[in-house]
Amino acid sequence: MRTWFEPEETAPYEAAKAILTRRCLAWADAHGRPADGPLVAAALDARHHSRDGRLAYWDEPQIRRYLLAWVPKYVVTPRDILEIAPEILRTFLHYLAATGLRDPRGATPAQADDAITRTLPDFRNALDDPHLQGPATFWAQTALDHGSDLTGPGALRDFELDLDAGRIRYDRDLLDRLLEARHTRTDLDLEEERAFPQPPIALPAPDDLAGAAARSVTVRRLTTLATWAGELGRPLTRSGHLTLADARELSALLGTGEAELQVRSSADLPRLRLLLAWARRLGLVRVTKGRLLQARSATLPHDPAALWARAFDVLPELGAEISMSGRAGVLGRCFADVLPDVLATLYGMDDVPVARLEETVWPACQEHVSMDATSERTKDLWRRRTALDLERAFDVLADLGAVDLTRGPADDRYASDLDDGALPPEAVERLRERLASPDLLLARLTPLALRSVRDRLLREGRDAPLIGELATAPPAELLGVLTQHYPPRAAAVELNAWLSHPGQDLEALLRAARDCPFRTRAAAMLAVLAQALPEGQALVRDLRHDPVLAPTALTLLVDAGEIDPAALDRREHLLLAAENFLSLLELGGPAVVIEQLRSMAGHDAHDLATALLDSGHHDLAGLEELRELVAGPLRASRDRPLRLIPGTGRGTRPLRRRRRP
Q1: DSSP class of 629
Q2: Which of 120, 234, 317, 510 sits in a 20 to 30 Å window from 564, CA-based?
């Protein structure tokens, strides 16, 4: 059972939502907990239509988003059901934990309970605020309040007729405000754009990162600059710049290489100008009565790691100082929007050609800076200047210690997708020529930058796995994350790190696979073990005779070509078939299973379903669903008397129409 789907995977997601809702309701009934199908489904929808899309990942921000925004805007149900939505969410989150589906990187059940409790006062206020509704919810709730079920045949037409006839009253002023809000309020759009999943990364120990921050050229320069300004300060010119003599002195002290430049003003020393703006933005220095002074309350100079992190965070705000064209430069005007995307592109990647980044940055700049009346010649000039400014930005990042810059040939993967239509033809042509060079400027993020970018991604609600963060996760939750969010190599590293902890062994992992109530998830768990462990394939072969995992192991062995299905005995054939159809039920739903059975067995489809039910498969919950949702409808259709259609079939006679009495 997957708990993450691409936005376009509509059918697989709907099938997963149906079975998760169904199983959650059954679990709630068995444990005496409140539950409601539409609200459980709404919780899944809220996570699916989010930036990261992880159905089983819940933390306090996601809990608040669901209860305070999603439920008021999208859920239509009687008020007494809406009021217990927090308790139903508790039920759902406890169900995820009880079945091993919970993402261990989110809140624990106890933490989630506390977060829900803290949200209750705001939730009651949200339910009482009609402006949080969307127009569609307004009409659906209006229909419900007047006893109309819009899902019934012809119900929508009848509702519209009642509206036109004035038989249904509604708040016209509120509707007008809701329609206006659709075009003026961005906070009502809860269906967030899905972000690309990030690859898992590894980070050094905190002490190593702190040491790297202390060695940063920029950190040392900023600290020296603040000390140089001192408590007495340095005089500034009428235009607010350092005197040229002081600027030359400071440039020599900082080692910017600008002390001997022949300029008329200190403002013409770009590296020094950037450092001064950076120091002021960080609060290291201040300007008072025409003098530049060290800020009295500045604590950052005494904490290199904190200073580095803060300097990295404010860097996007310094585009005008980085661009050689200042505020008039294209990159300078959109630097705050472009730099985070560039850093996210570099995240988890090795030696990315800066040339490739230049061709993706330019279209992004055009989205932020209007060029409608600009000639193609001028646009090309601006593109070249933007490329130069981007290279300067990389020099600044290198001095900070955020990127490592090298020169050499580009990896073939950076040219493999040039024909996918993402870039204009002229950009593709330029890139093909440039990527063929053996001496390209290549960039990769340092561990310091990786940590800071990851922190930003997490604040934005994105998934950014970290090698080692699952070191003590419960076995089922560990394997669940590895199956969906870790590539094979990273999964092997994480799994072996988990096994190195005392009390965490292979048997615990196998027990988690045996206890898994979903066939597709159990298969994925076993597949991870087979790929990540040196003895993985031998382990799967041994599990062929396991009383619980045998059907899963047989499926993997047949798929790998290690077993010829013709060599299986009748019992194994039935177990394998049951495993496959139970998996299909999870993946596609009852209608797909019924269609498949009919295509295989025709009129004997019910008999085949009955044989599957008698296979001895251990998944009793799955078999019961197969009995109720598949075998039952097949039997009903088989037992239904054949209706004769007039004029069709061999030997049939037209039926006489009965007269009405």
Answers
A1: I
A2: 510
- CA 416 vs. chain centroid, Å, equals 25
Of 200, 250, 205, 171, whose CA–CA distance to 448 is shortest? 205
Instruction: Report whether 466 contacts 230 (CB < 8 A).
Output: no
Type of residue numbered 457: L
Within 8 A by CB and 6+ apart from 242, the residues are 234, 236, 250, 266, 272, 276, 292
As a whole number of Å, the end-to-end CA separation of the chain is 58
Cβ pair 486, 383 in contact under 8 A: no
Q: Which of 536, 424, 534, 528 is nearest to 486 (CA)?
A: 528
Q: What digits encode the pLDDT tens for the residues 346-363?
A: 999 999 999 999 999 999
Strand partners, 466: 201
3-state secondary structure 354-373: HHHHHHHHHHHHHHHCCCCC
Count of Cβ atoms closer than 10 Å to residue 412 Cβ: 8
Three-state secondary structure of 134-199: CHHHHHHHHHHHCCCCCCCCCHHHHHHHHHHCCCCCCCHHHHHHHHHHHHHCHHHCCCCCCCCCCC
Contact 364, 334 (CB under 8 A): yes
d(CA 82, CA 323): 53
Contact residues for 55 (Cβ-Cβ < 8 A; gap 6+)? 3, 4, 16, 20, 44, 47, 48
Q: What is the pLDDT of residues 42-96, one digit of tens each?
A: 999 999 999 999 999 999 999 999 999 999 888 888 888 889 999 999 999 999 9
Helix (H, G, I), strand (E, B) or coil at 76: coil
Q: Measured between alpha carbons, how far is 359 from 433 in angstroms, rounded to an integer?
A: 13
Report helix, strand or coil for 472: coil
Cα–Cα separations (whole angstroms), residue 612 to 224, 566, 626, 640 = 76, 18, 9, 22
- DSSP, collapsed to helix, strand or coil, labels residue 534 as coil
The three-state secondary structure class of 503 is coil
Structure-token match 């419900």, residue found: 144
The structure tokens listed for 427 are 């950009």
Extract the tokens encoding 326. Answer: 């200042």
What angle, rounded to 10 degrees, do the helices at 270-282 and 217-229 form?
A: 80
151/133 Cα distance (integer angstroms) = 20
Q: For residue 631, give the nearest of 657, 654, 605, 649 by alpha carbon.
A: 605
Q: How far apart are CA 548 and CA 579, in angstroms?
A: 11
Separation between Cα atoms, residue 523 and residue 553, nearest integer Å: 8
DSSP 3-state assignment of 2? coil
What's residue 648's pLDDT? 40
Instruction: For the sheet with 403-408, list strands across it.
Output: 352-353, 440-445, 403-408
How far is Cα 472 from Cα 549, in angstroms, rounded to an integer? 24
Q: Which residue has the tokens 């996918």?
A: 420
Other C-beta atoms closer than 10 Å to the C-beta of 482 total 28
Other CB atoms closer than 10 Å to residue 69's CB: what's the count?
A: 16
Does this model's pTM top 0.90? My answer is no
Specify the residue for token string 């068995």: 30
* Among candidate residues 8, 11, 40, 19, the one with its CA nearest the CA of residue 520: 19
